[in-house]
Design brief:
Dna Ligase, domain 1; 3 domains; 4-stranded parallel β-sheet; 9 helices; D-amino Acid Aminotransferase, Chain A, domain 1; alpha+beta; Rossmann fold
C-alpha cells in the first residue's frame, strides 16, 4: 500500500503512523492540504511534489481538512473516483459532518444524549439569549480540537468578553455538566478498540491529555461501548475518538466525536498499538 496522510507532518500521531507504516512495508507520507496543488487542464489532477496523487498512492487517509474544507472534500472525491481507498469514505460521498452543531443534531436524531445548548449566527440574537442562561456555561468553538477554543464562563461578563474575540457564530454555548467520570473510546471500522478514563489537569475543567491531563485504561461495560460505536457509526466516521461523560445524576452524555483523534496517550495508557491497527485496517481495504 502507498498511503498519503493529509494532516500536520509534525503531529505526533502522524509521525507514529508513518513509522509504523514503513515498518509494515507500506510507503507512507504525511502532507498538509496546503501542499496539494490542483491542476485544472484537460485532465484534472491533484499533485503532491509534482506527482499525481491518484497515480502515486493507493490510499488517502484525510485526518485534517480545516480550514481548507472544500479542497479536502475535493481531494477525497477525486481520489475515490480514481479507485483509491479514502478514509473517511463519507468525505467522498457528500455525507461528511464537520461542525459540532451539525454533529449534535445527527447524534440527537439517533437517540443519543449530547450537552444542551445553542449556537446563534448573530451576536444580537446570542446576546438576547444570555438572560435565559444559568451559569456556569461552556463556550466551545464550532471547529477545533484538543481543548482549543473551549472556555468555562461563570458569569455574563466573562462570556461576552470571550464572544467579542471571535466572529459571529464561532461558538456554541453549552450547559456545564457535573461530570463523575469521563472516558475516551477509540472506534475503528465501527468497533471499539478500547477505552481510557480521563482526568483533567490541576485547576482545569477540560479532560484533555494534550493539555496536561492524565489517562488510565478503563474497562467499560458492553452497553457503553455500543453507545460509543453507535455515535461514530451515526456520523460515518471510520476512525474516531468518542468522549463519553457519566454525570453525577448518571446521564450518559456524548460530549464529542472527534474524527481525527489523538492516540499516543491512549497507546501509552492501554498498550494498544493504535497506529498498527489503523494501517492494517487501511491496507486490508475494509
Amino acid at each position: 500500500m502507498n498511503l498519503l496522510i493529509i494532516g500536520n507532518p509534525d503531529r505526533e500521531e502522524n509521525i507514529r503512523l508513518v513509522r509504523v507504516g514503513q515498518k509494515m512495508n507500506h510507503y507512507t507520507k504525511v502532507a498538509g492540504l496546503n501542499d496539494v496543488v490542483f491542476i485544472m487542464t484537460d485532465k484534472f489532477q491533484a499533485l503532491i511534489d509534482d506527482c499525481n496523487i491518484c497515480d502515486k498512492f493507493s490510499a488517502v487517509f484525510i485526518r485534517n481538512i480545516f480550514p481548507l474544507i472544500s479542497e479536502g472534500l475535493l481531494l477525497a472525491e477525486l481520489a475515490h473516483q480514481a479507485g483509491l481507498r479514502v478514509m473517511d469514505r463519507a468525505l467522498a460521498t457528500n455525507n461528511y459532518v464537520q461542525s459540532k452543531t451539525y454533529q449534535a443534531w445527527k447524534l440527537d436524531q439517533a437517540g443519543l444524549i449530547t450537552p444542551h445548548g445553542f449556537q446563534s449566527t448573530t451576536s444580537v440574537d446570542l446576546l438576547a439569549r444570555l438572560s435565559t442562561i444559568n451559569y456556569p456555561v461552556v463556550l466551545k468553538g464550532v471547529h477545533g480540537s484538543q481543548g482549543t477554543h473551549v472556555h468555562l464562563c461563570r458569569d455574563e461578563s466573562t462570556l461576552t468578553t470571550i464572544l467579542n474575540q471571535q466572529d459571529d457564530g464561532f461558538f456554541i454555548v453549552q450547559e456545564y455538566l457535573q461530570i463523575k467520570n469521563e472516558y475516551r473510546v477509540l472506534i475503528l471500522g465501527g468497533r471499539a478498540l478500547g477505552a481510557i478514563k480521563k482526568k483533567p489537569p490541576l485547576d482545569d475543567f477540560r479532560h484533555n491529555i494534550s493539555l496536561g491531563g492524565t489517562a488510565e485504561p478503563a474497562e467499560l461495560p458492553a452497553d457503553l461501548l455500543r453507545l460509543c460505536e453507535k455515535a461514530a457509526q451515526t456520523l460515518d466516521y471510520e476512525f474516531a475518538g468518542v468522549d463519553l461523560a457519566i454525570t453525577i445524576d448518571n446521564r450518559r452524555v456524548i460530549l464529542e466525536v472527534n474524527r481525527a483523534p489523538g492516540f499516543v496517550g491512549f497507546e501509552t495508557a492501554t498498550g494498544i498499538n493504535v497506529a498498527e491497527k489503523v494501517i492494517s485496517y487501511l491496507a486490508n481495504d475494509n
